[in-house]
Known about the structure:
Elements: E1 3-7, E2 13-17, E3 20-25, E4 29-31, E5 36-38, H1 40-43, E6 53-54, H2 57-60, E7 65-70, E8 73-75, H3 76-91, E9 98-103, H4 109-121, E10 126-131, H5 132-137, E11 145-151, E12 156-163, E13 166-175, H6 180-199, H7 207-223, E14 229-236, E15 239-246, H8 247-258, E16 269-271, H9 273-276, H10 281-286, E17 292-294, H11 299-306, H12 308-311, E18 320-321, E19 323-325, E20 342-345, E21 348-351, E22 355-357, E23 375-379, E24 384-388, E25 395-396, E26 399-400, E27 406-407, E28 412-415, E29 418-425
Parallel strand pairs: 1-9, 9-10, 10-18, 11-16, 16-17, 17-29
Antiparallel strand pairs: 1-2, 2-3, 4-5, 4-6, 7-8, 11-12, 12-13, 13-19, 14-15, 20-21, 20-29, 22-23, 23-24, 24-27, 25-26, 25-28, 28-29
Helix pairs in contact: 3-4, 6-7, 6-8
Amino acid sequence: MTLFVLDLNDAELRMSREGAIVARSRGFALIDQDELLLGDAAVRQFRLHPRQANNLFWHRLNSETLSHRGKDVANHADLVYRHLRALTETAKFTADDELIIAAPATTSTDQLGLLLGIAQQLGLKVAGLVDAGVAAAATTQTPERFSFIDVSLHRMSVTQIASAEQLQRTGSVEVNEVSLSALLEAWVNVIADRFVRETRFDPLANAATEQQVYNQVFDWLAAATTAPELAIEVGHGANARRIDVPAGVLIDKAANRYRLTETVLDGPLLLSHRAAALPGFVAALRTRVEQVTVCEPNAIFAGVVLNSNAIRSSGDGLRFVTRLPSAGVSRPVAPAQTLPTHVLWGHRAVPINAGITIGRDAFPDLPATFPDSAVAIARSADAVRLSVAAGTALAVDGAPARDGAELRCGSAIELAGVRFALIEVANGA
């Protein structure tokens, strides 16, 4: 008997086997009369055939009838059935294996009930249900109260958690305006406007060129590149057109949506790897929240495996677990004693380890004019300090910095027009 875990997030549905990821697929479907495309194959044709496209079925997780039906596919539940079947086949799940589902706090009782019914139809032995945020937090020390942040295709979920001897979910909120789909739509529109201004060609006026833009923006986000510019090229007939879009323009567009989280995000924050990968999001949070920690990508799986006995239940007694043993409470310390582990630029975080030089070796996409060996960061047992070459002008947290200055989590280093953030990355392995 082998334990599998399903990370129920339609931005990237993931399935692990004994903690290692063995299947992943985005929550997209393209419905044809003769075939059904799922995951990335559907993403690549999503704007070509909008009437046949659907990326709401996991989000809604209900039996609502589809406006466009296909063979053996009439409602959202049918799409969930087919997608879950494909995932478990890829993962090589067998009748002897067990499945624990890690679901967002915003998942309703009705939705969980429908999902369990679908799993039963597929012959999957579901051994437990657990809150994904609680599971992700279970492998690292946390503050006494904090919020876990994750993002999916149609919402950002905020899970409030209390920590003592046990982690316990105390509430949840969703922010629909800050979703992957909403951000992608905003970025595509920014790029289309730039195309019109620079080339007098509107890529959104044609489904084929719209799909090309969408693919490239999707790839940019998935690659988590720190390149200062995004090159977008579209081909239409015999013509090819290209524009360069500064990454900062796209981040500024996203910042308008990030501000909508200000009323619900306060106090210490624990971010999923998905939320942390949103361009500019961590930096935006650090302007107003002192403690922002990023989970390892496999934190949910590690938390479930570590606590599988506490999560397991069976049959009619299957329960949605919202509390787990805590790995310990991290006590508040003075800011200077909070040691950063990584330097963040854009959405690339590089470990400090014993020391790091801030330059193109660490961040290959820095501008060619960036002073390559002017600043270094050194870490000792009890401090992280700045090393500044003579004649170098830089600022830390908006004030001129001196050689030997002590740095903390949340410090911002500004040099040659480039801003770096010092962060702590939690070890969820």
